[in-house]
Amino acid sequence: MLFQDLIFWALAAVAVVGALGVVLLRDVFRSALLLVLVFLTVAGLFFFLAAEFLGIVQVLIYAGAISILIIFAIMLTQNVQEGNLPNGLQFAAVLLPALLLVALAFVAFDTDWRLIADLPAVGGTAVEDAAFRDNTFTLSKLLLENYALAFGAAGTLLLASIIGALSLVRER
Amino acid sequence: MTPFLQENVVFREVYCFLGGNEGNASWCGGDGLLPGGFEWAAYFAAGFVIMFILVNAALLGAAVFVWSERRLLARFQARRGPNRWGPWGIFQPIADLLKLIIKEDIVPNAADRLAFTLVPIIMLMALLLSLAVMPFARNTYLVNLNVGILYIIAVSSMSTIAIFMAGWSSANKYAMFGAMRGVAMLISYEIPLVLSLVGVVLIVGSMSLVSVVEAQTVPFLLVQPLGALVFMLGISAELNRTPFDILEAESEIIAGYHTEYSGIKFALIQAAEMAGVLAASGFLATIFMGGWSGPFWSGQLGAFWFLVKLAGFVMLFIWIRATFPRLRIDQIMAFAWKFLLPLALINFLVTAVQVYFFGFYQGDVPGELTRNELWIMAAINIPVALIAIGIFGRFSREKVRVPEPVFQNIAPSPRTMEVD
Fold first, then answer.
1. Which of B147, B151, B161 sits opposite A36 (nearest CB)?
2. Closest of B385, B370, B387, B389 to residue B203, by C-alpha
3. Minimal CB count within 10 Å: which of A104, B129, B203, B261?
């Protein structure tokens, strides 16, 4: 268990330090790269929780796509050498993450976490155990059966935004 | 000990040779070399052996690939190619590598040193990580991830960030041009690349590459011709090979994103690119040609069949490089969005309907399509592929506006002309 603890704390420390660097560094380029690092460490934490699908999607969507969008924004920014200038929103910038932190901490302490290692011990059934091990299949089944409406709504929202983007950039 | 490690042949052999039955590894035949209490050493040694083999295979393979590509390209262009050093010039890559190692490692003054140095490391890391899930023969792989197909795409998309880092940190406008072109191109090609593999995932019912190989009673090249085509073209764009090499176009922007790199850093970037072709061929062979399964003795000769298929796809990549000229950036974008993306979507739709009608989900567990059902799918999908390619090839044919004549006193007459 010691080895696993070591990996967990290393990942967590890199994530926190990287996130602080994203906010505090003046160099926008390095901020963006540190953001990628934070995304990757969060993916590592997902892997650590045996949630391979979430980890991979974190790498694919956040580290692979969202960060590229940020990179595009940096490439198209004028006066990028001036760096990360402060503006008059420091109070809001502290308040909102603080509220988010409180909400997340509440959820984290309120949830009944059940680890895979504990499952047979706490009387988890064989089906539940298999569901945890093949979590991609379980996740797709949940999304397309129990939460089909939310899944469809999210898909429709994305489609609408794509059509909106196309109609905005269309040549007239 | 997790079960996926004891399935792995290399890991099991090394672990049992060293650690033996001590600890909880009851699947070993007898005692190992090490005394009790040292299972962790056997564990690390076995893991190290696998990674050592993998890294060296990738880099040596890259060297052999460089040689064969230069020789074959020379043949295609009616030249001789490197033929001096060793029989048929086979030691040429070693000489090149020695030259690059000895050369001075220059970092531009204005460069961002840290990011500049990290680029070759990240490129090689993305490549080697993607090899972790490739099944080289029966039960021979580093891990059997149950999200393997997504994993290879996610990990290889990290090289986009490396290209951006190279362009930005070099403080060179040509490097920046190359990086900008590259980022714009790679993010467009990722979408058809992911969509082209959805059909395979639907048929197999799992994203693990090991299951993909086991489910291929019929090669998926026949069952998923459109998927294979889109994946092949998309991955050759991700590899920055010649029809899509706008990000290092030698005749336009010197060497693109790696203009400022020299010495060992340049060697590492080249090695990552070359071994990337091998990895892409390996994934094509695994996903669409049945990987290590062959016409006979797939158990014993698995690695041989895998290498034969890999070599075939490598040959195809070299052939494509020798045949096609470089595309312009707008042609590349149009190709991704107007040709590859619709084909990938058609493939997805057709496969989904077929899988639904063949009753794939019997109850709650994924079943497997029988050999006959796969042949029926192939018989339907090949004509569908040909028709779709015909239709969208016609749609994506671009209309080029001929620029206005230079003589300003003549009234401009913008005409449109159809160009193949």
1. B161
2. B370
3. A104
Rounded distance between C-alpha atoms, residue B349 and residue B196, angstroms: 11
Among chain B, residues having any CB pair with chain A shorter than 8 Å are 112, 115, 145-147, 150-151, 153-155, 157-158, 160-161, 164-165, 168-169, 180, 183, 187, 190, 194, 206-207, 364, 366
Identify the sign of the CA torsion B41, B45, B51, B55.
positive
Residues 6+ apart with CB under 8 A from B254: B174
The answer to whether residues B63 and B51 touch, using CB atoms and an 8 Å cutoff, is: no
Q: Which residues on A lie below 8 Å from B146 (Cβ)?
A: 52, 134, 136
Report chain B residues whose CB lies below 8 A from the CB of A71.
Answer: 161, 164, 183
Considering the entire predicted model, what is its pTM? 0.82
Find where tokens 């009753």 sit: B359
Q: How far apart are CA B66 and CA B72, in angstroms?
A: 10
> By the CB < 8 Å criterion, does A136 face chain B?
yes
From the CA of A133, how many Å to the nearest CA of chain B? 9
Q: Which of A4, A26, A59 to mutate to test the interface with B (most CBs of B within 10 A)?
A: A59
In contact, B390 and B323? CB cutoff 8 Å: no
Contacts of B319 (CB under 8 A, 6+ apart): B76
Three-class DSSP category at B249: coil
Distance set, CA B44 to CA B13, B15, B40, B41 (Å) = 13, 9, 6, 5
Tokens of A12: 């967590």
- In 3D space, the residue among B289, B88, B326 whose CA is nearest the CA of residue B185 turns out to be B326
pLDDT for res A157? 95
Which member of A30, A52, A64 has the closest CB to residue B157? Answer: A64
- CA distances from residue B187 to B184, B337, B392 in whole angstroms, order as listed: 6, 11, 21
A29 vs B: CB within 8 A: yes
| Per-residue pLDDT tens listing for chain B (420 residues) | 355 566 677 777 777 777 666 555 566 666 666 666 666 777 777 778 888 888 888 888 888 898 999 888 888 888 888 888 878 888 888 888 888 889 888 888 888 888 888 899 999 888 888 888 888 877 777 777 778 888 888 888 888 888 888 888 888 888 888 888 888 888 888 889 888 888 888 888 778 888 888 888 888 888 888 889 999 988 888 888 878 887 777 777 777 788 888 888 888 888 888 888 999 999 999 988 887 887 777 777 778 888 889 999 999 999 988 888 888 887 888 888 888 888 999 999 988 888 877 765 554 445 567 777 778 888 888 888 888 888 887 776 666 566 666 655 555 555 544 444
CATH for the A1-82 domain, from 2.40.128.260, 1.20.1250.20, 1.20.120.1200, 3.40.50.1000: 1.20.120.1200
Find the closest chain B residue to A35 by CA distance. B161
Is A35's Cβ below 8 Å from some Cβ in B? Answer: no
